[in-house]
Give the backbone structure.
Amino acid sequence: MQLNTGQEYINVEGALVEKDSLQIAERLAEYDPNLYIICLEPTEAGINDAPFIIAELCEDGEMRRVFEAWELNASILDRVMQADTSKYDVLSEMDKINDKIRRNNTQRYEEIMLENKEQATAVLKSRKTSYTLPNAHGGISKIHYDRPAERIS
């Protein structure tokens, strides 16, 4: 009887490796040849130990842990690329995101102020002694000429 897990395996130096995992390792090596995937021995790993460690071989010859992973998938490559400050400028990316948020906030503020200006102009031009308009709470407010405004709903 043969077990079929739906995964394709490849023999790499006497060890059976899932084809998908091997492709992740190859792409990681192409991206940075100093990065390695270390697989923990299941019998020696603790219950809270992730089975894979992404490590970097540093210039001083020491192997240092970059991060741990519970499964080998494309998210490992994304995580490595986003954390790589030599190839990816995190600060400039954050500045771009913050600038976009600032522009959106400014645009929204200007739209609200223009709407308020139009409403105020309409109230001032009106010959009525009271005027109803939508308020910031989603209800309706009534503005009076001779007394304070009141919230209707």
